[in-house]
Write a structure and sequence with these properties.
Layout (H helix, E strand, L loop, with lengths): L1 H24 L5 H8 L3 H16 L12 E2 L14 E2 L54 H4 L7 E2 L23 E6 L3 E6 L8 E4 L2 E4 L1 H12 L11 E7 L5 E13 L6 E2 L6 E8 L6 E6 L10 E2 L30
Parallel strand pairs: 1-4, 2-9, 3-11, 10-13
Antiparallel strand pairs: 4-5, 6-12, 7-9, 8-9, 11-12
Helix pairs in contact: 2-3
The protein binds S-adenosylmethionine.
The site of S-adenosylmethionine (SAM) has 18 residues, from strand 5 and strand 10.
Protein name: SET domain-containing protein
InterPro entries: H3K9_HMTase_SUVAR3-9 (IPR051357), SET_dom (IPR001214), SET_dom_sf (IPR046341)
């Protein structure tokens, strides 16, 4: 009798340990792995269901200030309930294919530990000068007046002001309610979940910062549907031009595998409702690409910007932006 009781205690202890391990490990799995493991037993099925429901409720896995849910109205939600990717709220260096990030666990929000959000600046210019405003940055702040482009200049790592400074609007992450919803023809898209007033910062375009050579190589892979394993590419190339028309700066950000919610913004031939702003900060080596509302955006309106004007491939992907000036084909500039 005594022997049987102690066996029961060991069984319940090992069951508890199994549950604890499964709860920690399952959030590291991709959807295919999760589906496969969930079919092995009832307990793992229940845990996978919980992981899926947490993933669906917040694409940003607690990293942004507000949850950004997925909504899939297609066929009663029978297709995938969320889109899988690694979340980075800021620009990041190239990452290896083996990178894993938990998503759908109880502790999603503590991903970045006590340090909070990662630094928005990947590379700094040592010894650069910034502002030394003692009481909040206002009209006299050097960062505002340095080149006259108010929207494109922010305080940065070489300034003495802190993250609460009013001239760092794009550095604190998403501050407005957004949601991601699926369209049968365009795939996932980013939508306003509340009114966004004209001029308001919406989000940065975050992802892997690539050299032009790497960007070209990846673009070639993405252009071959058979080899890209059904990934939806999200490689953004922004070129800055001199008044002469020559390109003076080019920035390549690939949010296909790792990025933030900006990777869900679809193209519109009429320019959409977002301004793409090259944002420089004092002491930061590289600019960041940020989106601001170009007009008042109503609740439930889809957010969109123009991917470019060049359509080199007449057999390129069809465009379904439904604007009156739609060219019928998505921009396909050779990067
Ligand atoms: C940066 S992703 C945007 C998010 C994407 N819809 C998804 O499901 O992840 C770019 C891809 O979205 C689709 N897309 C974007 N704008 C579109 C449009 N106006 N019409 C059709 N497809 C579009 C294309 O497949 C394009 O390669």
């Amino acid at each position: 009798m005594e022997e049987r009781c102690s066996k029961k205690i060991i069984d319940s202890q090992s069951e508890e340990a199994f549950l604890r391990c499964a709860t920690v490990i399952l959030p590291y799995l991709n959807p295919a792995e999760l589906a496969s493991i969930s079919s092995t037993c009832k307990t793992l099925y229940q845990i996978s269901k919980l992981v899926t429901s947490r993933r669906t409720s917040d694409a940003s896995r607690g990293i942004e200030n507000l949850p950004i849910p997925f909504l899939n109205p297609i066929a009663g939600g029978k297709s995938e309930p969320y889109s899988y990717f690694i979340y980075s709220p800021t620009q990041t260096a190239r990452v290896g294919p083996e990178i894993r990030q938990p998503w759908g666990s109880d502790g999603d929000a503590s991903l970045y530990g006590k340090e909070g959000r990662p630094d928005p600046f990947l590379f700094r210019v040592e010894g650069a000068s910034g502002c030394d405003c003692a009481r909040g940055c206002g009209d006299g702040c050097n960062c505002l007046t340095a080149d006259g482009f108010l929207l494109t200049r922010e305080c940065g790592p070489s300034c003495s002001c802190d993250s609460m400074c009013g001239n760092r609007v794009s550095q604190g992450g998403v501050m407005t309610r957004l949601k991601i919803a699926k369209d049968e023809r365009k795939g996932w898209g980013l939508f306003a979940a509340e009114l966004i007033p004209s001029g308001q910062f919406v989000c940065e375009y975050a992802g892997e910062l690539l050299s032009t050579k790497e960007a070209r190589q990846r673009q070639q892979t993405y252009d071959k549907p058979a080899s890209n394993g059904h990934v939806t590419p999200a490689l953004l190339v922004v070129k800055e031009h001199l008044p002469s028309g020559n390109t003076c700066m080019r920035i390549n950000i690939d949010a296909t595998r790792i990025g933030n919610i900006a990777r869900f913004i679809n193209h519109s031939c009429d320019g959409g409702n977002l301004d793409t702003v090259i944002t420089r900060s004092s002491g930061a080596l590289l600019p960041r690409i940020c989106f601001f509302a170009s007009r008042n955006i109503q609740e439930n309106e889809e957010l969109a910007f123009s991917y470019g004007d060049v359509r080199l491939d007449p057999n390129g992907q069809p465009c379904f932006c439904s604007s009156s000036c739609c060219a019928g084909i998505l921009p396909s500039e050779h990067t």
